[in-house]
Amino acid sequence: MSKPMTIDIGISPSERESIAQGLAKLLADSYTLYLKTHNYHWNVTGPMFNTLHLMFEQQYTELAAAVDEIAERIRALGHPAPGSYAAYAALTEIPEEEGVPDAEEMIRRLVAGQETVARTARSIFPLVDEAHDEPTADLLTQRMQVHEKNAWMLRSLLNG
């Protein structure tokens, strides 16, 4: 078996490792939020059923694509992407769902989850800026835009 090729993309090995560790947390938060949102899509009831069922589907579908992008960026930096429930549970800041809350509580928990992912993405920026890692900066900016908008849209359902 041949030796792996050295990665020479202008980011040091230690910087790539630190960024990949941050992205692993982002991946874990995103995947956990995906599972929670998909769960709520299946189990939401009440007068806002149709609105929430469709909104949750849009959000979990977007998250499914996002986890792939995040994992691929980790791989491009030369590190393995975490891919198990145990790894995600150890890395995420989003609590695992237990039971089936009512629709309003689902919304509140998803707002908290969306904001958590946005904070995690934002927390990686100092490492990315220092390493001049523009592709990861672009990914993080896109993720923050999506999660901040989703949090606003969900919050608006409660503040109406």
UniProtKB/TrEMBL annotation:
Top-level taxonomic group: Bacteria
Residue span, Ferritin/DPS domain: 22-159
Pfam families in the record: Ferritin
InterPro entries in the cross-refs: DPS_DNA-bd, DPS_DNA-bd_CS, Ferritin-like, Ferritin-like_SF, Ferritin_DPS_dom
Family membership noted in the UniProt record: Belongs to the Dps family.
Name of the molecule in the record: Dps family protein
Lineage per the UniProt record: Bacteria, Pseudomonadati, Pseudomonadota, Gammaproteobacteria, Chromatiales
